[in-house]
User: Fold this.
Amino acid sequence: MGTWAKYDAEREALCTDLAGLEASQWDTQSLCTEWKVRHVVAHLVAEGNMKPGAALIGVMKNGMNSNRYVARVALAAGQAPPDSLLGQLRATVGARTTPLHSKPIVMLEDTVIHAADIRRPLGISRTLPEDTQVEVAEYVKTAGYPLGTRKRIAGLRLVATDMAWSTGDGPAVEGPAESLILAMTGRRAGLGDLTGEGVAVLSSRM
Assistant:
């Protein structure tokens, strides 16, 4: 399955889960400290619709801080009603647009990670296809700004216990692939599922 097909599958699965939420659950705090569930969904919608010119102006207005700009866009767009946000997210399935200079893997990675940001606080579980997790993990392990993974996992050996994937050398960090991906991207929620001598080091870098 190609990257775009995986992207479609994960967005469809997320839409199915969101469709079963009560209205109040859209205001659940996500794993993203600045965003509730509704804001994460708004971000997933917005990332493929940002016009280069408007994005540049927005970044400039936010002190050349792209993360601040993205966060504020999501906070504003996330005020829409749940039905509207869900409809907008459904409309991204099959879309083939990306933010400026981004590749399809960035869209897949963002979808997989932010879906976990939504599902975990809500107690919703999903077993992602192994090939999807491998592709995302392989991309994330080398990521610099804004994810900062390279420095975070330097000198550690990460080993998935639920599929054939590992990376790095050094003290071991072992656990489910999704939890490794979350920890690699700085989400402390993934740490509880991990074991090994390297966990304390990884935790200290978050």
Residues 104-122 form the longest helix (19 residues). Residues 3-122 form a domain with the Four Helix Bundle (Hemerythrin (Met), subunit A) fold (CATH 1.20.120.450). The chain has two domains: 3-122, 130-204.
